[in-house]
Amino acid sequence: MADGTRVAYAVTGSGPPLVVSPGWLSHLELDWAIPAQRLFYGSLSSGRTVVRYDRPGCGLSDQYSGPRSVEHELATLGAVVEAVHLERFDLFGWSLGAPVAARWAADHAQSVSRLVLYGGWARGSAIGDEVSRTHLLGLLVDHWGLGSDVLTELFAPEADPGTRRVLAQYQRAASSAQTAAGLLDLAYRIDVSESLNRIGAPTLVLHRDQDRAAPPPQGRLLAERIPGAQLVELSGRSHLPAMGDSRAVVDQVRRFLGLRRLREAAPVGLTARQNEVAALVAQGLTNREAAQRLHLSERSVESHLERIRLRLGFRSRTQLAAWYATQHPSSRGEVP
Cross-referenced Pfam families, in alphabetical order (predicted)? Predict the structure, then answer.
C-alpha cells in the first residue's frame, strides 16, 4: 500500500478473476484448514481465479494500528487489484466486505464486470441498537476470548460445537482484540447508501432470512437501491457464507457468474495411520516425537505427513492441526 503496509493475498483456481472482499476478520492460511471454508472457496475456484486477501492487521498481512475507514478499505482492495494486475474482474463482498465492494463498484464502474453481495448492509447503524453495539465493542476489548465466543454463536449458529470452537480460535488467531474492535466499529459506522444508485454492474444480492448479524431488511435495501439488482433470500441462520447451507450460496453465485453447477463434493478422510499422525501433530509433537510414540521411523512419519498434505491440500502443520480439531472436537489431539 502507499504507506508501506504489506497486504497478503492468495490466488486459487483458474479462469476469469473473482476478487473476494472479506468479512470482519480473515486469515488466509487458516481459512484453508477449516473444511467448510476450504470447500466454499474451492467451489468458487472451479472456473474462476479467486483472489482473497487479509486486510492490514488481520491474518498474514502487516500489523496496522491506524484509523479504520471506508477509504482505507478501498485502498487495501485497490492495492490487491494492482498487485494481481487486474483491470476488470467479478467482485464478491460478504459481511463487512459487502458495503466495501458496493462502494468500490460505484467508484470504479469500469473495473467490475459483475457484483455479488452476501450478508451485507447499506447502513451499519442498522445493525442492532446502540446498547448492544456498545456492549459488544467493550466485550471485544476487555474479554477477547469471551467476545469471540459470543460472536461465533451469532455468526455460525448452525455449525456443530467443534466447528464453532475452531471458528472462535480462528478469530483470535486472525487479529488482536484492538483490531477486532476497530473493524466491528467500522462495520457499525459504514454507510454506502448514497453510493448504491451509481452501481452499473449486474448485481446479485444474497441474504439469509434469519441472519441475526446482518438484518435481512438491509439486504433488501441494497437490492432496492442498486439499479437492476437481483435479490435472493436464502433459508438459514448463519451469517458466514461457508456455514449452514453453503451449497445454496455457492449454487447461486455460480449461476449468476455463468458457471455450471458442481457435483456434491466427496468426503475427505485419512487412513487409520494417517489419522494417528494427524492427532499427534495436533498435540504439537515433532516428527521425531510422533515416530517414537507410534514406534515408527522418523522418515515414515514424514512420508505420512506429506501424503496427508497432498490429500488435504494443506501447506503447514497449523492447518492440519486446525482441521483435525474440527473433525475430532472432543479429542484435543489425543491419538484415537
Answer: Abhydrolase_1, GerE
